[in-house]
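Translate structure to sequence.
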């Protein structure tokens, strides 16, 4: 059995035993595939991890950078109370349209708001609207901008908030110092920034599964943001 086939089998083992059939989530994946969206959504196990983390930290407000077809948005939106709020940012109109339909099908339109446009344009608008600090931020968008998104996450959270960044291992390429890959370099820029950042405590976890060999970074905001 190859590494990838074994990883797939292990993921499926846990899915078969720890998940129940879910029409809204399945429909989100099917409609995303039918619309030609890239198959880069989080896996079911990763989606449930996001749900668990949101529940564990008692999240009431969640910010997601990178919506794709709304699969992860549905997982996290379901973790929120009825008066909770999730804002998810998507730059591609086609992705945003598919996600909006998927979120509505899941019955989460009142909780999850899809905002269309480049995230680095949307984030200052969110700050100006003062929605209150976000309890959880999930960053899963263009990797070269990871550090910029993380800086904004720090402005929009509070001590005790959790920030998660997906796809930081890049099939192990993260250890390559001079690799000509802007996605890997985006991870380098983020981790170098965090090595000097006193406001958060962070770690990175390597993962294998249906999405191959990758990993995520998870950080706890541990101090207040100094005034500008």
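Result:
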């Amino acid at each position: 059995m190859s590494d990838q086939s074994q990883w797939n089998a292990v993921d499926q083992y846990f899915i078969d035993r720890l998940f129940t059939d879910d029409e809204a989530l399945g429909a989100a994946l099917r409609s995303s595939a039918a619309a030609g969206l890239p198959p880069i959504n989080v896996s079911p196990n990763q989606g449930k991890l996001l749900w668990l983390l949101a529940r564990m930290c008692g999240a009431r407000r969640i910010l997601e950078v990178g919506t794709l077809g709304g699969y992860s948005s549905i997982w996290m939106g379901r973790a929120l109370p009825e008066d909770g709020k999730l804002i998810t940012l998507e730059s591609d109109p086609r992705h945003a349209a598919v996600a909006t339909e998927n979120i509505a099908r899941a019955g989460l339109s009142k909780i999850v708001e899809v905002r269309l446009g480049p995230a680095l344009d949307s984030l200052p608008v969110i700050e100006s609207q003062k929605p209150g600090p976000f309890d959880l931020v999930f960053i899963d968008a263009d990797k070269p901008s990871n550090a910029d998104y993380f800086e904004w996450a720090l402005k929009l959270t509070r001590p005790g908030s959790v920030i998660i960044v997906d796809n930081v291992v890049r099939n192990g390429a993260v250890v390559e110092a001079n690799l000509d890959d802007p996605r890997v370099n985006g991870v380098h820029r983020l981790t170098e920034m965090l090595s000097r950042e006193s406001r958060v405590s962070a770690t990175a976890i390597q993962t294998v599964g249906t999405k191959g060999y990758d990993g995520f970074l998870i950080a706890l905001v541990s101090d207040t943001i100094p005034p500008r």
